[in-house]
């Protein structure tokens, strides 16, 4: 049982004492990803697209892709953006999407509008 820290320079570096992702026994836990460089411009679809691209880069660094994702968590500042987020998110999970919850929160790091984390299994 070995714990592997996964890191790629194709996604934002952690802004605190955490890893981009941790892989253990074939399970990858990806920390919440945000689009720091796009916030808070208000374009929720552009932010969501960038967040999903960041997740994809981390999955790739771990030898996985979106088909390996079994669970995701979405945190959003405004639930009125639910449909817009879904539109972008759905492009990455066209078949057998993962289990998921979407939660409205008061504030997110760096004042972004959306944060997404995933769990993937190899």
UniProtKB/TrEMBL annotation:
SUPFAM superfamilies xrefs: YjgF-like
Transmembrane segments: none
Segments forming a coiled coil: none
Entry GO terms, CC: cytosol
InterPro entries assigned: RidA, RutC-like_sf, YjgF/YER057c/UK114
One Gene Ontology term of the molecular function aspect: deaminase activity
Gene3D superfamilies found in the cross-reference section: RutC-like
Signal sequence, start to end: none
Highest taxon above the source species: Bacteria
Family (UniProt): Belongs to the RutC family.
PANTHER family, sorted: 2-IMINOBUTANOATE/2-IMINOPROPANOATE DEAMINASE RIDA (PTHR11803), 2-IMINOBUTANOATE_2-IMINOPROPANOATE DEAMINASE (PTHR11803:SF39)
Identification of the protein by name: DfrA
Record organism: Spirosoma radiotolerans
Lineage: Bacteria, Pseudomonadati, Bacteroidota, Cytophagia, Cytophagales
């Amino acid at each position: 049982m070995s714990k592997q820290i996964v890191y790629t320079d194709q996604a934002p570096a952690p802004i605190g004492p955490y890893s981009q992702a941790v892989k253990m026994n074939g399970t990858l836990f990806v920390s919440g990803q945000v689009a720091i460089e796009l916030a808070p411009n208000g374009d929720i679809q552009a932010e969501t697209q960038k967040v999903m691209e960041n997740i994809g880069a981390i999955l790739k660094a771990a030898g996985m892709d979106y088909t390996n994702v079994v669970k995701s968590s979405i945190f959003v500042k405004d639930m009125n953006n639910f449909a817009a987020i879904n539109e972008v998110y759905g492009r990455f999970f066209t078949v057998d999407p993962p289990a998921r919850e979407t939660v409205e929160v008061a504030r997110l790091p760096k004042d972004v509008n959306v944060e997404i984390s995933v769990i993937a299994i190899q």
